[in-house]
Amino acid sequence: MKTAEQIALDVRSGASTAQRELDASLAAIHARNDELNVFLYVDEDGARAAAKDVDDKVARGESVGPLAGVPVAIKDNMCQVGVPTTCSSRILEGWRPPYSATVITRLLAAGAVPVGKTNLDEFAMGSSTENSAFGPTRNPLDPSRVPGGSSGGSAAAVAADMTPIALGSDTGGSIRQPAALCGLIGVKPSYGLVSRYGLIAFASSLDQIGPFSKTVTDAAILLEAIAGHDPMDSTSLPEPAPMLSAHVNDGVVGKRIALVRELIDGADPDVVASVTRAVEVLKDAGATILELSIPELQLGLSAYYLIAPAEASSNLARYDGVRFGLRVDGEDVEAMNTATRTAGFGAEVKRRIMLGTYALSAGYFDAYYGQALKVRTQMIDAFKRAYAQADLLIGATAPSVAFPFGSKTSNPMAMYLSDVFTIPTNLAGEAAISVPFGAGEAGLPTGVQLLGPGRSEAQLFAAARVLEREERGS
What we know:
Distance between the termini: 17 Å
CATH superfamily of one domain: Amidase signature (AS) domain
Largest sheet: 11 strands, mixed
CATH architecture of one domain: Alpha-Beta Complex
Number of strands: 11
Structural class: alpha/beta
Number of helices: 15
Oligomer: single chain
Strand content: 5-15%
Shape: globular
Low-confidence stretches: none
């Protein structure tokens, strides 16, 4: 499949049409979706209407936006008016939102063509897309293995050439980790850079929407299109979308980039080798390389699995069988509520709700949730000290390549460790990007992660582009 950049150029110039590009996308979806279980819903009628609108504007000589005619996949935890939105949960099966997320309206304004909703771990809680109520998604590079999670469906859509770009959400690594496992670019933007209005909440102080793509430039174009202040989101940064695509070729000359010991400790040797080679490439490109230890990062996993479940416990209380979604009748309201939540939520969601409710309960709040918030503050301060010494940080995205189905489902801690390198950025509210670089077991891709302070996306894209050029030779 062509890049998003090329599709938009072709559609704007008349060399192609949005409807022709959509036909290619739909053909790829129909060819492999039964095998991979990527899309939970394909909005063919809505996509055709959007594509026709783009083509009509081109014919009239009107501006059609930077993503003109580009098919895009949407993780199924983002509301789109009239389109089934389930969070891969039985509790929302069949629900059609009466409004659209801000990112959806911005995609349409940029000329993009949303083609459907992709599979995920239920309510974005997981690292393998095995926790979906509608079956797992398979990795297009090796269908016996997971695509990562929770945004595994969006990652698989791009990796399988169903769409050139996709949107996911990242609460603890749910864009970057599947990007690494599927050989893609995946970006977790600074907290507040992209509106969360219409994103169905998991952990509100951590969630952030971001792009998947096969190229750094495509990711930059997509992030530019969806970023910027939104008065509908009280956490939205009060500033316009940053210029990103204009800076992807800025390079790293004079930049200080630090290899962080805690972001490779415990990773497979092949992953460590990829990170080590990436460091050398950046050095050869003109960066000054440092080595840092940030011991506080070792506390990230523990803090995250108190803060995120606590926020999830609060956010998911709204699924009560009364206002929307699934309802299982009972002899009274309490019985109905219990029966609805028992039938509607899967095992992992229930596990995290119980963890979070316990952490927030009387007598335990200070010892668990309160303590986790203090640890989070320590991590934020540690990152500030690191960024006083370095412009960017580098490490591994995931500890291994894509792992086989079922290999970690019986051991929640082993699954949680899949995000050990990505969680710290979410806790700090800062920016990071995963770049496919090198290969590991069975020739599967490994991901290198670049981290930066808030609003450092332009620098991250420039450094990622250096690695991309080395890997692709262009």
